Every structure is written in structure tokens, then in C-alpha cells.
DNA sequence: AACTATAAACGTCATTATGACGCTAACTAA
DNA sequence: TTAGTTAGCGTCATAATGACGTTTATAGTT
């Protein structure tokens, strides 16, 4: 027996996945399809975020975690509740209305939106029941509901946060090269960075730990691997506010 | 006739007011009192944030603006939706249950929380119907519901935001002195700052505009007044992400 | 008119961080 | 051996920062 849900409230999840090989920041979306029962014509055919209602006895964070577990099989990801959306007309496109009729759900819903950070390769997309697919943030498909708006705001939050908190490491493997890190910043922020200055800046941080390990299997000079130490980072800034306006 | 409301959803507002005279960051709270109808005993007597339900045809932002207008008479304040709260047990203290029975409201409510920034003197507290009162953030009274948690998280967000966005100017008059600004940072961040270095840093910002005006009526050397130019600030940073981890 | 208390505001110096570049090093594949 | 490719070291001028010392303008007091 499924638990009772709270009416009018949902949680939507923006899943950001970074692919270090293609240097692409992607969003995980699921397909929304509805066929006319008689003509078999596709009435609705687009993509949406994964989301669901909140159970009666569940915290919002738990709803988000549950949704993500169900979609990706993954737990323990970086998760941020970044904004709630509740415009009265946020689900009033033509296709949303068709969809809502068939699914019998309330069009005046407030959704609490989260984003998650991971690497694309962590998710196994074979035999996922939602037809989930990665899309580059720069090349999103047609989206249902107000989900383009939600993704854009998640992306803005991520961009801004990436400039003052060390969250990018959630999008990389534990061991990474300085150039991986630079590529990632360049993808997220859509900027070009001078490699020599970036490198100097990063290797001077105490919480970027050089390892006695190098890349293997590359066709050029193998790069040194580094790790991020959250411990050291937090010790350095626990009482230290740097005003940087 | 009052509009229909959306069940299970509310908006709560944390109003931060800065008092430059006392150098105190304050929160505006309203009194929550309930008397036993027979014995006249005070069953509930504490403070809470202002909040209300969302109307059927209203955006969340509009709800927040409406609540604040009703409480303070003010429009056009800096407003930020910073987090939503929906723990199943967020309203399950003994007093909240008593209160909810008498007010006939749903204890499983998700609230979308906003904070507002202004100067305490802007609000006229005479004849306000809610018995609203300012409390220093360092010295809050007993609070109902989960409102202490909400205030603390609003404060954390404000602290962090103040270090990388120029929002402190929302808490000061248009014309301010460098020392006003320093006092404000010190109050918010609970740190000590070297005046000479702070002054040098701020005066060199292009968006801190010196005026040909000085303080009047002070008993010591009158300080020069400055303004913050949002225009210049935004032009400087519209395409410029500074990585500062 | 001179003195005092108070806060404003200018200045110095050593160190560190930054932006803009030039150049060398290590690896694989041909 | 050589070419292609990416890693990574180095230099220089300028800007920003942290830690201080010193002077200045005002109102109130003597």
C-alpha cells in the first residue's frame, strides 16, 4: 500500500551530470508521452524533470532523495533545495492540460525544486523505466510544464555557487587533474581561463592535495592527480568570512 | 469576500531590520497569545514570524509581498525566497498543537520562507494590530512553531550572501558613511574588521560613490557620505565570474 | 581662546595574489 | 627520430591585502 500524499505539493529534481570526457554539463530528463487511445496519435511528446508528491510522513529532503534513488539507484549525492515554484499558471500550457486530465492531477501545485550533482557515468541508463536521457545544458529538448524555467534557475544557482563554494568537486571523480578542474569551470561558467594562472592558483590551495599518482593510458604527458580535502577546507573557513563584494 | 486559499501551503516572512544607531540587526516578530476561555490562563504566549496561506490565484512572491505590506505598510523591499520547510513534525510542539486546535489549521503544512531587508526606522510600530516587535538576532524571545529554525537559516543565508553580493546596502540609508558600512558588516558577520584596511578597500570600488556631503550634528569630525551604485556594479559583473574558492 | 575627547581619514611597508605572457617537459604514435 | 599533444614551470609588472602609525576636523569643556 502506497503512503498517502500531500495534495498541492511536489518535489522536482534537476540532476546535473558532468561528463569529463566530452567536457559537457548535462541534465537528466525523462520522457513524457501520451497517445490518443483511438487514433494512436502522439498528443504529448516531450521531456520533463523527475518529480513526485510528498508523502504524508516524509520530510522534503527525503522526498527528493527517494525520487533520485528511484531514478538513478544512487544515494548520498550532493543535494540542494534551491527554490520553490508556485505560479498559478506554471502548468497551464496546452500539453500540460492534456496531460493533467489523463493523469488526474492538480494543476495548482507548488513544487519544491532540488538539484543534484554527479558524474554522468555514475548513472546506468540501461533498462530505466522512465526513458531517462542526458541532455547538454546548452542543448535541451522541448520541455513540459515550467521545467525549462526550473532548470535555468538551478543552473544560475549552480553557476553562482561554483564561484564561491567548492561544489565543483561533486561533479568530478575523487582524483582529478588540474586541467579536468579547469575544463569543468569553463563548462559551467562558459568562460575561458588562462591555464597557467589557474594552475598556479589552485595548486597553492592547501585543500587541493597533490597525489603521487599520474594519469595512465593517455597519449601525451600524463598529468598529476589531485584530491580535494573537504576537512582542510572547512577548518580554514569555519570562522573566516572574506568580504568579497 | 476573501479569496480561496491553497491548503497545506503557507509563506513565512523573516523581516531583518538594521538599526544603524545601536548597530543591531533585528528581526520583526509578532505575538502569539491564546487564553483559556474559562480560567483566562495564558495557554500560549510567545512570538512567531508573520505568515499566511497562499491564495488560489496568487504567485508565491505576491503572497510574501502581501504579507509584508499588511504587516509594515511597505512595498518594494529587498526580498528573497531562501528555503521551504516541510518536516512532518515542524509544528508539533505542545503549544503549536493547542494553537492549531483553536485556529483550526492543518499541522502538516509546507511553508515557503522569504526574508526581507530594511532599516528598523522604516517601520512604524505604533498601532500595529499584530503586536509586532523588533528583537535583536542575538537575543530572540521564545518562538513558536519551527520559527527559530527558519530564522537561523535565513540568517545563515544572509551572512553568506553578504560576503559575495552587495546586499548590505538594503539595510542602510541611501547615503551612508564608510564606518556605517563597516559597523553593519561587523554586526551581520560577527567579526572585527580593521577600519583602515576596510576603508581603503571600499573607497577603491567604482560603485561606491563619494558625495560632496558630510554628516551633520555629530560631535566629532563629520564623515563623508557615500552612495552605492547598483548600475555600475551590475555593469562591472554582468559577464565576469570571479572564481573565489 | 585654548584644550580635550572622539571618530574620520590619510599614510607606510612588507607580503601575497593576479593577469599576461614565454618556454620547457613528457608522453605516444608514426 | 620526429611530430603532435598536453602538462607544467617560470617571469614580470601591477594590484590587493594585512598590520600598523599618524594626522585632522568637529563639538563640548575649561
3D structure, described in words:
The structure is a homodimer of 245-residue chains. The first copy, chain A, has 245 residues and is an alpha+beta fold. Chain A is built from six helices and nine strands, in the order E-E-E-E-H-E-H-E-E-H-H-H-E-E-H. Chain A folds into two domains: 5-162, Alpha-Beta Complex (Nucleoside Triphosphate Pyrophosphohydrolase), CATH 3.90.79; 174-237, Arc Repressor Mutant, subunit A (Orthogonal Bundle), CATH 1.10.10. In chain A, strand 2 and strand 3 form a beta hairpin. The mean pLDDT of chain A is 94. The structure holds a DNA duplex (30 and 30 nucleotides).
What percent of residues of chain A are in strands? 25-35%
Q: H/E element string of chain A?
A: EEEEHEHEEHHHEEH
Largest interface: A-B, 38 and 38 residues
Number of helices of chain A: 6
Low-pLDDT stretches of chain A = none
What is the helical fraction of chain A, as a range of percent?
A: 25-40%
CATH topology of the largest domain in chain A: Nucleoside Triphosphate Pyrophosphohydrolase
Judged by helices, strands and strand pairing, the structural class of chain A is: alpha+beta
End-to-end CA span of chain A? 53 Å
Query: How many runs of DSSP E, i.e. beta strands of chain A?
Result: 9
Structural domain tally of chain A: 2
CATH class of the largest domain in chain A: Alpha Beta
Task: Report the major sheet of chain A.
Answer: 7 strands, mixed
Query: Mean pLDDT of chain A, as a whole number?
Result: 94
Any idea what the radius of gyration of chain A is? Answer: 21 Å
Amino acid at each position: 500500500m502506497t503512503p498517502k500524499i500531500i495534495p498541492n505539493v511536489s518535489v522536482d529534481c534537476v540532476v546535473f551530470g558532468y561528463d569529463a570526457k566530452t567536457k559537457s554539463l548535462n541534465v537528466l530528463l525523462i520522457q513524457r508521452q501520451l497517445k490518443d487511445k483511438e487514433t494512436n496519435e502522439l498528443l504529448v511528446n516531450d521531456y520533463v524533470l523527475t518529480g513526485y508528491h510528498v508523502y504524508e510522513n516524509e520530510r522534503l529532503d527525503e522526498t527528493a532523495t527517494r525520487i533520485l534513488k528511484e531514478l538513478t539507484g544512487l544515494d548520498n549525492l550532493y543535494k540542494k533545495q534551491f527554490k520553490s515554484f508556485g505560479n498559478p499558471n506554471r502548468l497551464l500550457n496546452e500539453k500540460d492540460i492534456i496531460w493533467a486530465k489523463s493523469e488526474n492531477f492538480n494543476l495548482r501545485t507548488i513544487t519544491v525544486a532540488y538539484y543534484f550533482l554527479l558524474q554522468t557515468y555514475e548513472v546506468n541508463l540501461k533498462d530505466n523505466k522512465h526513458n531517462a536521457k542526458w541532455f547538454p545544458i546548452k542543448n535541451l529538448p522541448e520541455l513540459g510544464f515550467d521545467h525549462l524555467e526550473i532548470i535555468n534557475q538551478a543552473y544560475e544557482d549552480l553557476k553562482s555557487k561554483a564561484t564561491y563554494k567548492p561544489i565543483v568537486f561533486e561533479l568530478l571523480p575523487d582524483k582529478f587533474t588540474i586541467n579536468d578542474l579547469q575544463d569543468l569551470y569553463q563548462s559551467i561558467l562558459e568562460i575561458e581561463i588562462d591555464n597557467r594562472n589557474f594552475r598556479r592558483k589552485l595548486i597553492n590551495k592547501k585543500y587541493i592535495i597533490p597525489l603521487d599518482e599520474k594519469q595512465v593510458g593517455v597519449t601525451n604527458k600524463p598529468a598529476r592527480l589531485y584530491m580535494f580535502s573537504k576537512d582542510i577546507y572547512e577548518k580554514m573557513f569555519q570562522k573566516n568570512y572574506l568580504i568579497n563584494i
